[in-house]
Design a protein that fits this description.
- Helix 2 packs across helix 4 and helix 7 packs parallel to helix 9.
- An 8-stranded mixed β-sheet has the order 3-4-2-1-5-7-8-6, sandwiched between helices.
- The protein has 367 residues and is an alpha/beta fold.
- The protein starts with a strand and ends with a strand.
- It has 2 domains: 261 residues, Acetylglutamate kinase-like (Carbamate kinase, 3-Layer(aba) Sandwich); 93 residues, Roll (Archaeosine Trna-guanine Transglycosylase, Chain: A, domain 4), CATH 2.30.130.
- It has 14 helices and 13 strands.
- The longest helix is centred in the first third of the chain and has 24 residues.
- Belongs to the glutamate 5-kinase family.
- One of its GO terms (biological process) is L-proline biosynthetic process.
- Its main location: cytoplasm.
- It catalyses: L-glutamate + ATP = L-glutamyl 5-phosphate + ADP.
Length: 367
């Protein structure tokens, strides 16, 4: 059975010092990926670089800041990016296929499954699926973490054996090695804690949009889905194979012992919450630590407009995100019964199908 890996390449790894697309960089990564395929791997590529590749071609002197300018640059740059990839992979006899996705595609389970089936067929035919955010129609992408989160969602979707996030830094350090020469690299991270998040800094370059923080976010999503992650540098021949084999220049993030089901992955990381519930400390403890369902008595605030079966996000009274769940009431019903005991709910509503606002089987903790 082939080893299936997802490789994510950021803007800073694909562009020249001036900000345009580096064809030499594209050719290098195509060589590395082709070598993986020859070694028996199935490879999916998640790439950034459309805006960076297109902004000079469209006439901007510097990377644009306004959304409509970025989207126009992406419209030009995506074509240039794919042309470069197609030419580079063609020299290895590999067909490159373009797939453009948005966050809403993952929020819709039918569209997500359709994308998954397309990817499976492309891999079956020996092609390289090249996946990018559809910048020209997506408002969210340009603050989406330079496709780091997208790569994690794709890795979980296709049940990859590994996600490799390539960047211009060789892993996560105890401090920024560019400012602190005594900083030490983390070789392995078994659990992504608040300490790990506090170490991750801001964006590292003016070309990309994703710093180490977004890569930690992506690693958390992927590892909770059962996909181990490598974050590091690949800039010499053979580096990518070394990263796959566990000897890369970077940091490896291990998976938890129990990975999430596809339903829980969708609920936690792909769905779009249509409302928000704030709960009291007792309900917070029951949800996060006790493995219990959410009952009306623990709800203090109801926000948004949603129907039975929609996804809502649950917050503490201080506003900390606790998790997400599928709600058993619409927002109007919930406003009527929030804070009530179960007996009061039965007396208040004409018909009660389930007392739980969110059943524990339809809940995922994100805290």
């Amino acid at each position: 059975m082939s080893t299936r890996v997802v490789v994510k390449i950021g803007s800073s790894s694909l562009t020249s010092v001036e900000g345009g697309l580096s064809r030499d960089a594209v050719a290098f990564y195509a060589n590395e990926i082709a070598a993986l395929k020859r070694a028996g791997c199935e490879v999916l590529l998640v790439t950034s670089g459309a805006v960076a590749a297109g902004f000079r071609a469209i006439g901007y002197s510097f990377r644009p800041k306004l959304l409509h300018e970025k989207q126009a640059a992406a419209a030009v740059g995506q074509a240039l990016l794919m042309q470069s990839y197609q030419e580079a992979f063609a020299s290895h006899g590999i067909t490159a296929a373009q797939i453009l996705l948005t966050r809403t595609d993952f929020g819709n389970r039918k569209r997500m499954n359709n994308a998954g089936m397309t990817i499976e067929e492309l891999l079956k035919q020996g092609s390289i699926p090249i996946i990018n955010e559809n910048d020209t129609v997506s408002i969210d992408e340009l603050k989406f973490g330079d496709n780091d989160t997208l790569s994690a969602l794709v890795a979980n979707l296709v049940k990859a054996r590994q996600l490799l996030i390539l960047t211009d830094m060789d892993g996560l350090y105890t401090g920024d090695p560019r400012k602190h020469p005594n900083a030490v690299r983390f070789e392995h991270v078994e659990e992504i804690t608040e300490e790990i998040y506090s170490i991750a800094g801001g964006a590292g370059s003016s070309v990309g949009t994703g710093g180490m923080r977004s890569k930690i976010d992506a690693a958390k999503i992927a590892t909770r889905g059962g996909v181990p992650v490598f974050v590091g540098k690949v800039d010499s021949t053979g580096d990518l194979q070394n990263a796959v084999s566990g000897h890369g220049r970077g940091t490896y993030f291990d998976t938890r012992l129990h990975s999430l089901s596809m339903k829980k992955q969708w609920l936690g990381f792909m769905s779009t919450p249509l409302g928000f519930l704030k709960v009291d400390p007792g309900a917070e403890k029951a949800l996060v630590n006790g493995g219990h369902s959410l009952l009306p008595v623990g709800i203090k605030v109801v926000e948004g407009h949603f129907q039975t079966g929609d996804v809502v996000e649950v917050l503490s009274l201080e506003g900390t995100v606790l998790g997400r769940g599928i709600v058993n009431y619409d927002d109007e019903q919930l406003r009527r019964i929030q804070g009530m005991s179960s007996s009061e709910v039965i007396q208040t509503l004409d018909m009660v199908h389930r007392l739980e606002v969110i059943h524990r089987d339809e809940w995922i903790t994100l805290k």
